[in-house]
Design brief:
Largest sheet: 7 strands, mixed
Number of strands: 11
Bound molecules: adenosine-5'-diphosphate, 6-O-phosphono-beta-D-fructofuranose
CATH topology of the largest domain: Rossmann fold
Structural class: alpha/beta
Order of helices and strands: EHEHEHEHEHEHEHEHEHEEH
Oligomer: single chain
Strand order of the largest sheet: 3-2-1-4-5-10-11
Number of helices: 10
Shape: elongated
Radius of gyration: 21 Å
Length: 319
């Protein structure tokens, strides 16, 4: 393999730039020619491909978003779309591809590998929902963004003695809500991986008030229901006045945390090493603080395992 390429795809995540930088610099260091593909799989189909140099990725390690831009590309889900992509890669002499993105992007990488282009998936999504890796790039930064928001909302909740519901992203996964809720001292956390009973939530809120609690913070993962819906349900059940805060896309932005920059650098470099060994259909990840590579197909088998002990702990600590 002489020439490889890198793209970012799906929802952007803080630290994607650090991963792009690592792929380009490690690739050149290891003797590859490295190209960048703009706008994810859409740009690949359209041939938005440029050669990279060491300096092309200067001054980006601290920047959020992705300098390569991202896209959701319905055409790539079709065989015809993927054949166009393969033709573009062949035209540019690209023999291996690093895909930085989430679960959907990994599925695309798997399909492309089946068409004879060795692909390596680098997990980057604030949702932390990729099976086989303890952490994805962007999760730590988003977590700290959410914690910061909870802290700020707590100030006003205390001042006005109010109950707040904060809606957190995560698609179908509860990791971001659970970690942020625990770290932010939320009274109640709702995640898709655990059943929640409205009566129980109301009882907890009322017993807190009974013991003199002046305010409450409820964190709800978007995969459970919207904060507005939840507020309506609680109001119907308990007649409580509630304020709602939907954090939205602010969770996806910002300068990556130190931890995200470090794992992005490690993951990007490992992806290049895997291509150097002529291997494709591989995912990069981290388990027990060690960078690992594993079978990309295994990402799609079964569901990601969330630590429900942490959920129980959050309940014990928030009484
Ligand atoms: P993320 O990678 O953040 O999970 P998406 O789910 O939107 O984001 O996936 C990103 C892109 O990956 C999609 O727009 C599509 O182009 C491609 N993709 C997703 N699923 C598949 C699939 N099953 N087959 C081929 N390509 C896919
Ligand atoms: O996957 C990242 C994510 O931010 C999810 O948490 C969220 O559900 C989704 O992307 C939002 O997608 P969009 O940016 O297309 O609105």
């Amino acid at each position: 393999m002489k020439k490889i390429a890198v793209l970012t795809s799906g929802g952007d995540a803080p630290g994607m730039n650090a991963a792009v930088r690592a792929v380009v610099r490690k690739g050149i260091h290891d003797g590859f020619e490295v190209s960048a593909i703009y706008n994810g799989y859409q740009g690949l189909i359209e041939g938005k491909i440029v050669d990279m140099e060491l300096g092309s990725v200067g001054d980006i390690i601290h920047r959020g978003g992705t300098i390569l831009r991202s896209a959701r590309c319905p055409e790539f889900r079709t065989v015809e779309g993927r054949e166009k992509a393969v033709a573009q890669l062949k035209r540019h002499g690209i023999e291996g591809l690093v895909v930085i993105g989430g679960d959907g992007s990994f599925r695309g990488a798997y399909e492309l590998t089946k068409l004879g282009i060795p692909c390596v998936g680098v997990p980057a999504t604030i949702d932390n929902d990729i099976k086989g890796t303890d952490f994805t790039i962007g999760f730590d930064t988003a977590l700290n963004t959410v914690i910061d928001a909870i802290d700020k909302i707590r100030d006003t909740a205390t001042s006005h003695e109010r109950t707040f519901i904060i809606e957190v992203m995560g698609r179908d996964a509860g990791d971001l809500a659970l970690w942020a809720g625990l770290a932010g001292g939320a009274e109640t956390i709702l995640i898709p991986e655990a059943d929640s009973d409205i009566k129980d939530i109301v009882e907890r809120l009322e017993s807190g008030t009974g013991r003199g609690k002046k305010h409450s913070i409820i964190v709800v993962a978007e995969g459970v229901m919207s904060a507005t819906e939840l507020a309506k349900v609680i109001k119907e059940e308990a007649g409580m006045e509630i304020r709602v805060s939907v954090l939205g896309h602010v969770q996806r932005g910002g300068s990556p945390s130190g931890r995200d920059r470090v794992i992005a650098s490690q993951f990007g470099a490992r992806a290049v090493e895997v291509l150097k060994e002529n291997r494709g259909g591989v995912a990069i990840g981290m388990q027990n603080h060690k960078v690992i590579d594993y079978d990309l197909q295994s990402v799609f088998e079964g569901s990601e395992h969330l630590d429900l002990k942490m959920f129980d702990l959050s309940k014990q600590l928030s009484i």
